Amino acid sequence: MVSRAEFEGRTVVVTGAGGRLGSAIVTLMVERGARVVGCDQSSEALVSPHIASRHVFNLLDQASIAAAIAAILDKDGVPDILINNAGWTRAETLPALTAAKIEHELDLNLTGVMTFADPLVKAMAKNGAGSIVFISSVNAIAHFGNPAYAAAKAGINAYAKSIAVELGRSGLRANVVCPGSIRTAAWDHRLAKNPDILAKLQRLYPLGRIVDAAEVAEAVAFLASERASGITGAVVPVDAGLTAGFLPFIDDILGA
Q1: CB of 132 within 8 A of CB of 174?
Q2: Domain containing residue 110
Q3: What is the rounded CA–CA span in Å between residue 187 and residue 21?
Q4: Which of 62, 74, 117, 118 has the most other CB atoms within 10 Å of its CB?
Q5: For residues 222, 76, 35 and 44, what is the CA-based torsion angle, rounded to 10 degrees?
Q6: Is the pTM value of this prediction over 0.90?
Q7: What does the pLDDT average to over 37-65?
Q8: Helices (H), strands (E): how many in the chain?
């Protein structure tokens, strides 16, 4: 049984803390004793009473990232755990891509994430301990659309491995969680076009459903914890079996 004091005395920085997945991560970490430093792009997103310290910045704005890093280190100190959760996408297929959209999605989901994480990771390494968890995507493992986002998330997977390899002897672990579809605000525009889309989506998943935010948060908490002390550089799908294989092929071709 997981201890309710698992993260007692630990400071945990969570980006995208106001979103559905971010909120689930924040709640779980606090329930297990952590002091959570919440980061998001607006103060309105950080109203949760579970958040002990709040920092607002934009991953597309280098100056605001630098200011946030300085404020975190000054106010909250070097984190024990860093959870890089913030991300966003809209360019869903290759025809939808433009130079501006490519730049926007790579800057937000890769460059901004690395720019924010790098100084904190190095500070953690200087302290001689720390756990970093990145929220990537199944899109980084196989192609499910959103090509620029997928490329950025694949970069995040590679970045996590670089931390794991180069800073492991400095006491750092870095791992990646790749969620499948979660019912978040990211699905609102699709549901507006097609209210039946979630039923169609579930057919692709071997468990017959998509995962929920709490299930992803559990994987994040495990990798962040000492229970995963021997795990670093891992890329862990939490996807109800989506990346294990293509179930409709079994149903429609082999079972026909």
Answers
A1: yes
A2: 11-254
A3: 13
A4: 117
A5: -100
A6: yes
A7: 97
A8: 9, 7
- Tens digits of residue pLDDT in 76-121: 999 999 999 999 888 789 999 999 999 999 999 999 999 999 999 9
Instruction: Give me the CATH number covering residue 94.
Output: 3.40.50.720
Does residue 3 lie within any of the structural domains? no
Say which residue the tokens 């293509």 belong to: 246
Of 60, 39, 157, 135, which Cα lies nearest the Cα of 105?
60
pLDDT at 72: 98
Please report whether residue 210 resides in a domain: yes
Q: Is residue 2 part of a domain?
A: no
Give the span between the Cα atoms of 37 and 205, in whole angstroms. Answer: 34
Question: Which residues belong to the active site?
Answer: 149, 153
The percent of residues in the chain predicted with pLDDT above 70, rounded, is 98
Report the half-sphere exposure of 219 (CA within 13 A, side-chain side): 23
Q: What is the spatial distance between Cα 216 and Cα 184, in angstroms, rounded to a whole number?
A: 13
Residue type, position 180, single letter: G
Task: Note whether 42 and 56 are within 8 A (CB).
Answer: yes
Q: Which residue intervals of the chain are DSSP H helices?
A: 20-31, 62-75, 99-106, 112-127, 147-167, 188-193, 197-202, 213-224, 247-249
Number of domains in the chain: 1
CA-based nearest residue to 179, from 159, 203, 153, 146: 153
Which DSSP category does 205 fall into? Answer: S
Distance, CA of 143 to CA of 150 (rounded, Å):
8
Residue 11 scores a pLDDT above 90:
yes
Residue 164 φ/ψ region, left for φ over 0, alpha for ψ in the -120 to 50 degree band, beta for the rest: alpha
Instruction: Say if 6 falls within a structural domain.
Output: no
CA distance 153 to 159: 10
What is the Cα–Cα distance from 73 to 79, expressed in whole angstroms?
A: 8
